[in-house]
Amino acid sequence: MDVDDSATSPTIPDGGFTAWLQCASSFALLLTSFGVINSFGAFQTFYQRILLPNETPSQIAWIGSLQAFLMISLGILAGPLYDHGYLRCLVAVGSVLVIFGMLMTGLCSSYWQLLLAQGLTVGLGSGLLFLPSIAVLPQYFERRRALATGIGSSGSAIGGICFPILFNQLQPLIGFRYATWLIALIMLVVLAIPLTTLRMRWQPTQVRGLFDSKAWKEAPYSLWACYLFVSLMGLYLPSFYIQLYGVRFMETNDAFYLLPVLNGGSFFGRLHIPLFIADKTGPLNLEIPLTATASILGFAWLAVERPVGLFMFSAVYGFFAGAITTLTAVIDAALCPSLDVVGVRMGMLLFPWALGLLVGEPIAGAILASSAEWRGLQLLTGAVLSTATALAVLVRWSKYGMKWGIKC
Question: Rounded CA gap, 327 and 332, in Å?
């Protein structure tokens, strides 16, 4: 069992060297799981234009969406294992799978090979790494939980900045195989941090199974699950397609930086102003206007065609998308009645989140290949995020009523 024996009661230190070390481990886990998925737009463009030119955008998107789906949905199994104390086992097996999957990706030359290596293997490994990265922090932080979660989750943004730049710069020089293998080597080095330092402070006093049926009888929890499904259908569409969109209006080498810029905006959205505000106002009170703004930006994407505008759109949209993603994890934990059920209930919420990612990008790819083309994809982004905004309002109303002065 991977439990800190010195923690005899569920007290929360809310800081200190050990607590911030867990935050660093969370950063490393998300860099090597979610960070790789945030980089898929670079692979999408390379596959579409060079490696798999005969495949449709929707077919290629299934590689990334399967990877994202498995990363998140596997939390349904990882949650109970975490509750039973098998934290380091999850991290060790997940680390082996993501590194092996990336090594095999470098050897692939066909669509089905990539689907199995990058989509399936990396996705399974990421699923074992993802839930521990967010579930362990509530045991170490309470008052500064939003800030700590933001620091940890910024690892996914850093991965989304560094990995696309590395891939786009190295692939023409050393080839697809060795560029991908270098990314796998970086993942190996980074994962040494959680493999040696990540620990639970205590094991839940009542270990739950795979499913907590009581959760779905709570209206706020069920509505929040609907919000996660709808919002994730559209939130990551620019991340998957902005680079491919950009090559229509600028030099290819310049368009390659759109995805790192988007993920750079996401980094600041995860770490700075929104997280400090959330600690004061409550995460749900902030999630509503953030999602509404992201929906407006989705519709505004229709008018963005010049290089300067594309870089500005990428940075601003990334900022709001990053803040939304970070706060969802905080709200997940806040909707749990006690820390004893955090693992299982957060794991259950990961399925609607994963389902939204699974279907959103391929649907957008199918629209892109139709007569609607880019206009249809952009309208889809704005429409689903507008629907998600309405659902977030319903979550708040069902949990706290319409008294907007309440911190929640």
Answer: 9
Burial of residue 60 (CB within 10 Å: 0-12, 13-18, 19+) is buried
Among left, alpha and beta (phi > 0; psi -120 to 50; other), residue 282 is: left
Residue type, 13: P
Burial of residue 11, with CB atoms counted within 10 A of its CB: 0-12 exposed, 13-18 middle, 19 or more buried: exposed
Residue that has been written with the tokens 């309405």 in this structure: 390
**Block residue for tokens 């993802």:** 130
Strand, helix or coil for residue 386: helix
pLDDT in tens, 206-248: 555 667 777 788 888 899 999 999 999 999 999 999 999 998 8
Which residue(s) pair with 3 in the sheet?
Answer: 200
H or E stretch including 27? Answer: helix 17-32
Q: Which two tokens stand for residue 231?
A: 């919002």
Do 124 and 70 contact (CB within 8 A), yes or no? yes
- In tens, the pLDDT along 264-317 reads 998 888 776 776 787 778 888 889 999 999 999 999 999 999 999 999 999 999
